[in-house]
């Protein structure tokens, strides 16, 4: 039932798992380890179908991707070079510093690059979720009445890759801001991929929670980049 709900299923005619979707892994001596089960990696079975499903729009939408952007279709504008390189580094390079903070004016490609990064990380098998901070704050509010706050916060602390888009607009209460800080601090300690974007300009960074933003000043595992590109949305409208 779980596999069906996720949008993919096992192959009922699989010659390896015999239609169960699971197999026993092999031990070093070549014998099956009957104490463990893993998803079947045979062609057209669970792992293969999951990989295909994770490139579909329904799955990407669940992960916060709404416009389905890719690096291949991104048209760089002057000033975005360093930002683009940093996003691509995290998306494709296993040795990239896990923390990235990108700030600058609206409309210069930050959200586009966030979505492209989610898509590539999922292709690599790294579970990733993109949240617009305003939406995450609303989710935190809902979780109070549902008594699921700690479950939500705990899941965000442990997620292999988390992207928080458009932070810095004073969304939410002090409590909600503290929860966001708590998530970022925990992720930094665990060295998990964490990307934050903000529409704040350099002289406005004081609006960001210092306890969270200070994590991105550690040059050993983080990068803090001013996206110098201009807002290219008006020019796109003119072209149309």
Share of helix, binned: 40-55%
Which structural class fits the helix and strand makeup? alpha/beta
- Enumerate the strands of the largest sheet in spatial order, edge to edge or round the barrel: 4-5-6-3-7
First CA to last CA: what distance? 47 Å
SSE string, helix = H, strand = E?
HEEHHHEHEHHEHEHEH
How many strands, which pairing sense, and closed or not: the largest β-sheet?
5 strands, parallel
- Estimated share of beta-strand residues: 5-15%
Which shape, going by the Cα principal axes?
Answer: globular
- Overall pLDDT confidence: 89
Gyration radius, rounded: 20 Å
Poorly predicted runs are: 1-5
Could you provide a short overview of the structure?
By secondary structure, the chain is an alpha/beta fold. Helices cover 40% and strands 13% of the residues.
């Amino acid at each position: 039932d779980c596999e069906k709900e996720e949008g993919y299923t096992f192959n009922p005619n699989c010659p390896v798992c015999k239609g169960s979707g699971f197999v026993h892994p092999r031990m070093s001596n070549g014998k099956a380890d009957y104490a463990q089960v893993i998803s079947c990696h045979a062609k057209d079975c669970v792992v293969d179908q999951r990989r295909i499903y994770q490139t579909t729009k329904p799955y990407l939408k669940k992960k916060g991707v709404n416009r389905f952007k890719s690096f291949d279709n991104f048209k760089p504008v002057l000033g975005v070079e360093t930002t683009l390189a940093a996003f691509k580094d995290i998306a494709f390079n296993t040795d990239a510093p896990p923390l990235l903070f990108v700030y600058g004016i609206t409309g210069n490609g930050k959200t586009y690059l966030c979505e492209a990064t989610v898509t590539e990380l999922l292709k690599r098998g790294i579970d990733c979720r993109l949240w617009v901070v305003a939406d995450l704050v609303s989710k935190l509010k809902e979780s109070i009445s549902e008594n699921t706050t700690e479950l939500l916060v705990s899941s965000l602390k442990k997620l292999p890759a988390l992207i928080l888009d458009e932070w810095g607009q004073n969304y939410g209460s002090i409590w909600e801001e503290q929860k966001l800080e708590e998530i970022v601090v925990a992720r930094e300690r665990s060295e998990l991929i964490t990307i934050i974007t903000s529409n704040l300009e350099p002289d406005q960074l004081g609006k960001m929670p210092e306890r969270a933003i200070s994590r991105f000043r550690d040059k050993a595992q983080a990068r803090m980049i001013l996206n110098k590109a201009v807002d290219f949305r008006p020019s796109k409208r003119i072209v149309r």
